Structure formats: structure tokens, C-alpha cells
Amino acid sequence: MSTYKIAVIAGDGIGKEVVPAAIACLDRIAEVHSLDLEFTYFDWGSEYYLQHGRMMPVDGLEQLAAHHAIFLGAVGSPEVSDAESLWGLLIPIRREFQQYINLRPVKTLDGVTSPLAAKDPIDLLIVRENNEGEYSEVGGRMYRGLPHESAVQETIFTRLGVTRVTRYAAGLAASRRGHLTSATKSNGIVHTMPFWDEVVEETARLYPEVSLTSELVDALAAHLVLRPWTFDVIVASNLFGDILSDLGSSVTGSIGLAPSANLNPEGDFPSLFEPVHGSAPDIAGKGLANPVGQIWSGAMMLEHLGHPEAADHLQAAFESALREGFGTRDVGGTSSTAEFTAAVLSAIDALA
Ligand code: NAI
Ligand code: MG
């Protein structure tokens, strides 16, 4: 039996509802596939911050490093500034563990109605650069409180950073339909984005079976609404990739469906699996949260750990629950989080 140590951080808001739902599904899958998933729970997040003045302990990263993977809900609370919650936990994990790929699949699911009138199935991958770009620590604030108060934040692109994310995205495109789209803005952002374009082009050229299209991100956003089914793999910077993935998941039906993997492809550090959505304080504690994004992230974790059959089984189970008409309010259904989870558990048994 394979044993995996998984660090679980449910975090805040609906993270505390969708993580237990997904763990119940993972436990059932582990039984069927003879996997030993050993979950260790960390109560880090905004409540921890309010008690200790930090989102996680000083040695938090060391504690996490001893695991095969990290399973995260969401962090963020109205009582803690978002910059504090993001930079105190998620961003240090992504950076220190060199999780430079943020992989976000966007796919039409049977039983979920897209808000778009056109109905061609959508199946695309967003590969977001996850370590640098617009999310940079370089910058500062001056003259606080004075009329000439100012703020500067520099975007940092490195050849290493752009090359490795493009290589990963082009490799995925080569294994799929062979189309790679790069999100750019080199008409307006005249230093960093032309550099991004050059390095993406140079790198993609090494994959002759992949066709590369560079699209200005504003037009690309429009195309994601008008004809999302024409995209295969999209490679984007940290900020552009973040915005496009909320858009992408919404055109398939709901942000509550969208999963993501923060990958350290070399396996030097644990990778982290989390839904795209945040802590949704507006619906937290009401049993309304859609657990699909979290469960699907669990399936991506199983795949990453080298168990594609277990991953496919879990994926088929939540897809089957949706197809049977179960669904939370955000996808037009009436199921509570618990009712939907129960339907996935039955589907896991039925498909075993
Ligand atoms: P959000 O994703 O939490 O919510 C946006 C909207 O989508 C809300 O109306 C919410 O009810 C709905 N929604 C989100 N997930 C859902 C689900 N699973 N089922 C049903 N409906 C769902 O984004 P928002 O409101 O901008 O941020 C809330 C907090 O979450 C903030 O503190 C923010 O910083 C944090 N956040 C954390 C992230 C993370 O931990 N990775 C990512 C995004 C936001
Ligand atoms: Mg986001």
C-alpha cells in the first residue's frame, strides 16, 4: 500500500466546509484504491492570525515540507487585510516551494448550464506563472498621508521564469490539441511584455507540433466569452492568469467548480492543491458552498501523486453527481454542500 502524508489547511470561510467534503471523498477513494492517505490538519489562517499575529507559525514552511502534498481550502477574512492573509501564507508557500506552475483546468460539465448562449463544449487549460511577474515584492510607498503620497510596484519577469512556464504549457499543448495561446499586453506594457513575448516565442519554437498564438489579453478575455471552445492551452503571467481563470470558470457555470494545482514540477518540494475560489464570506457557514472545485483539486492531487485511476474515479464520481441533477445553488441546483457530497460518495461506490 502506498502511504502519502498530506498537509491539510482548510483556512477560512467556506474552506472549512469544502475541505471536509473533499476529504470524505478522498477517504472513500483511498479505500477503494488501497491508498494510505495520512491527513495532518493545520489550523492556520485568519483566526490563527487574530490570536498569534501571523497566518502560520514561524516554522510553518518547515512543517509543510515534510509532506508529499498540501491540500488547501482558502484564506481570507473580512477581519484581516487581504494582503496580510495572502502574503502571510499562500504566496510564501508558492514561492519557497518553487510552485511556479499554477494549472487551472476549465471544462464544460454535463448537468451544469453555462451562462453563454452557445453550447460547444469547453476544454482548456490555463497555465499561470505562479512565482514572479506582477506579484512582486519590489516597490514601496512614499510620503504617506501627504498630497504627493505615491506607490510603486515593479513587475519582474526573468528568462528562467518565463522559459519554464512556457515549456510546461507547450508540453501540455503537445499532449493535447497542439494549440498554445500566450496572453500578452506588449502594445501598452513596453518593457516586460515584449520580453515575455520573445521568451515565449523562443521556447515554443522548440515544440514544432505546437502552434503558438500571442493574443492581447483584453481581446483574449473577449474571446474567452465569445468562443471559449477554440482554446486549448493558455499560458499567462501571474496577474493575467489569475483574472483569466475566474473568467474561464465562470463561462463554464461557476467559480465554485474550478480546481487548481500549484506545482513544483521537479518534485523538490510538495505541490499544493486548492480551488480557484476564495473564502466566500458572503455564503460561509450556510451550507451553500459548491465543493466541486475542492474535490476536483483532490483529483488533481491524486494524479500528481501518481494514481491516475484513482483521480479518474473521483472525477467521474462528481461529474456523475452533477449529471444526475445534484448541484449547489451557484450551478442552479438545490443541494446543500452535504447533500452534494453524499451524492458524490454514492457515485464513488456505484462506479467502484
Ligand atoms: P471568492 O472566490 O471568495 O467569492 C467570489 C464569489 O463567488 C462570491 O459571491 C462567492 O459566494 C462565490 N463563490 C466562491 N466560491 C464558491 C463556491 N465554492 N460555491 C459557491 N459560490 C462560490 O472571492 P472574493 O469574494 O473576491 O474573496 C473573498 C476572500 O477570499 C477575500 O478575503 C480574498 O482575499 C480571499 N481569496 C482567497 C483565495 C485563496 O485562498 N486562494 C483566492 C481568492 C480570494
Ligand atoms: Mg484569483
TrEMBL record:
Transmembrane parts of this sequence: none
InterPro entries, alphabetized: ICDH/IPMDH, IsoCit/isopropylmalate_DH_CS, IsoPropMal-DH-like_dom, TTC_DH
MF-aspect GO terms: D-malate dehydrogenase (decarboxylating) (NAD+) activity; magnesium ion binding; NAD binding
EC number in record: 1.1.1.83
Catalytic activity field: (R)-malate + NAD(+) = pyruvate + CO2 + NADH
SMART domains linked: Iso_dh (SM01329)
Record NCBIfam families: PRK08194.1 (NF006048), TTC (TIGR02089)
Alphabetized PANTHER family for the sequence: D-MALATE DEHYDROGENASE [DECARBOXYLATING] (PTHR43275)
Entry similarity comment: Belongs to the isocitrate and isopropylmalate dehydrogenases family.
Protein name per the record: D-malate dehydrogenase (decarboxylating)
Protein source organism: Rhodococcus koreensis
